[in-house]
Amino acid sequence: MSYCRSNGDDSDVYLVMTGHGLLCFGAGWRLEETHPVHKDSLTITSRTEMIRHLGAHQAAGHKVPDRAFDRLSEEVEYLGDFCGDES
Ligand SMILES: [Zn+2]
Q1: Rounded to two decimals, what is the model's pTM?
Q2: Helix 66-79 vs helix 47-59: angle between axes, to the nearest 10 degrees?
């Protein structure tokens, strides 16, 4: 399931949940070239840390939709902060 995907509209960032945590693919090579946050994909197992991470994308000028922040905040409330591999 994806929280947001790079769509050329309101999101430059592609973020999905995997079995190992939240996987962020960055903002694409063009934006990462000029306004770098990370070029390689990045897995984070803390939802609050991912919220901060999305803030770093915004600070770099990358578009991140409010719904991604809202959904992560809701999940922290209902599911907890940890979202890594629990097996
Ligand atoms: Zn990222």
Answers
A1: 0.94
A2: 160
Query: In 3-state terms, what secondary structure has residue 17?
Result: strand
How far apart are the CA of 85 and the centre of ligand 1, in A?
19
**Residue 86, C-beta contacts closer than 8 angstroms, at least 6 positions apart:** none
Question: What is the residue whose two structure tokens read 């719904």?
Answer: 67
Query: b/e string for 24-40 if b means 16 or more Cβ within 10 A?
Result: bbbbeeebbeeeebeee
Q: How far is the CA of 15 from the centre of ligand 1 (A)?
A: 8
Ligand 1 is a single-atom ion; what residues have CB below 5 A from it?
Answer: 24
Q: Over the stretch 32-46, which tens digit does the pLDDT of each residue have?
A: 999 999 999 999 999
Boundaries of every domain in the chain: 2-79
CA of 78 to the centre of ligand 1 (A): 23
Q: How many residues does the chain have?
A: 87
